Amino acid sequence: MNAPAKLGKFVITRELGRGTTGSVYLCHDSFLGKDVAIKLYNMDETVSEQEARTRRKLFFNEAYLVGKLNHPNILPIYDAGEDEGHCYVVMEYVRGAQPLTVFCLPDNLLPVRKVVEVIFKCAKALDYAHRNGLVHRDIKPGNILMTADGDVRIVDFGVAKMAGNEQGQLKGLVGSPSYMAPEQMRQQPSNTQADLYSVGVVMYELLTGKRPFYGDNLSRLVHQIIYATPPPVHRLRPDAPAVLEDIVNRALEKDPARRYKTGIEFAADLTRAVRTLDKLSEEMVEQERFNMLRRLRFFQDFSYPEIYEVLHASRWQTHAVEEHIVVEGALDDCFLIIVFGDAEMWRGDQSIGLLHEGDCFGESVYLEQGRSTASITAKTAVTVLRVNATLMEQASMPCQLRFHKVFLRMLIERLARHQSQEESEKRKAAKSNV
After folding, report:
1. Which of 10, 55, 121, 293 sits in a 20 to 30 Å window from 420, CA-based?
2. CATH 1.10.150.20 fits 98-278, yes or no
3. 6-92: which CATH topology?
4. d(CA 311, CA 205)
């Protein structure tokens, strides 16, 4: 069926997508002065009478939702109507949005943390819909949009089941088979947990780039969904932590009684998973920093636990080129270790030396908790460890003794180098005067 040039007050601009029940077009709302998306249902005369009734039922089913749902992660429906035999619904147009199918490809997977965020929003949105008496029945990556700024919109409630609207909904096997729950495949009554099962399938696919169940034909796919166990997530996505695999497995339980009962329950587990991910991330950062410190000459004689003690008594800072690391005369109680990069020491306008990876500064300030006697600026991008005197006093005695021994030794070495440089300059000056 060819689209009309205009539907009511809406001028059709171009086609955005096409499905089995209809097509979606970009339109301009001249009254509001903005673009909208219009889903035009296929109601042409070439289909059978039964198919026409089915499609009209889909239209009224979705149109029934107008004004019913108002959630930031559900694509809003503004209006619905019929114009010269064309049934349509008017929806928000999200510029730059992509269906999640784009992020289900093995070479284009989202970061694990982003997957958790997407599924969390879907679970919350579905919980809202469920509490309003609606079961979507066709949750799949193609019906979830990701906006240009990374937000989520659930779309297409055409086959939804609405409580109290039995005349305006489809019965039997509806939805997309690969994402259907076992009870849907058995054509048993489906409730909100069927939607949550589908979300579990989407989560599995976003994490791994594969669907949990495949079949060469519908019969084999049905058998897989009802009886088979999917490959473990970690086998396909090694960086996915066990806590997420447990969530996916619960969402994909064959028995609805063992599955998530509400979207809020699903979202709560995802929230706990985020805390675990954050903790793992912090541990990874700490391990990386530990590895960087361990290779510095300053820490060569420290045991592993002692390095961690120093790390926990310190702040990790980065500085750009020419940025001040220390300002002469400033009060401080920190001892600095150059972890990466080069810095220059100044007294007034005079350069008094360079600091390189592994060098340290601030021994007198650290001991006396007074004012800095020189300035330090970054010659390159610099990473420093600022060891706090007060926090180091809480470290173990062996760690404190080793720390004081090393920084005093390095202080003596630097003073010796400085004295040697001064003597060398004096000799050069004396020769030039002869």
Report:
1. 293
2. no
3. Phosphorylase Kinase; domain 1 (3.30.200)
4. 39
Compute the distance between CA of residue 93 and CA of residue 29 in angstroms, rounded to an integer.
Answer: 11
> Per-residue DSSP letters for 298-326?
GGTT--HHHHHHHHHTEEEEEE-TT-EEE
Distance in angstroms (rounded) separating the CA atoms of residues 388 and 315: 8
Show which residues are catalytic: 138
The amino acid at residue 400 is: Q
Question: What does the mean pLDDT of the chain come to?
Answer: 84
Which pTM was predicted?
0.67
Q: At what angle do helices 112-131 and 192-208 cross, to 10 degrees?
A: 170
183 φψ region: left (φ > 0), alpha (ψ -120 to 50), beta (else)? alpha
What residue type is assigned to position 145 of the chain?
L
Report percent pLDDT > 90 for the chain.
36
Distance CA 4, CA 82 (A): 12
Q: What is the pLDDT of residue 370?
A: 63
User: Where do the CATH 1.10.510.10 domains begin and end in the chain?
Assistant: 98-278
Burial status of residue 94 (CB atoms within 10 A of its CB: 0-12, 13-18, 19 or more): middle
Paired with 350 in beta bridges are 347
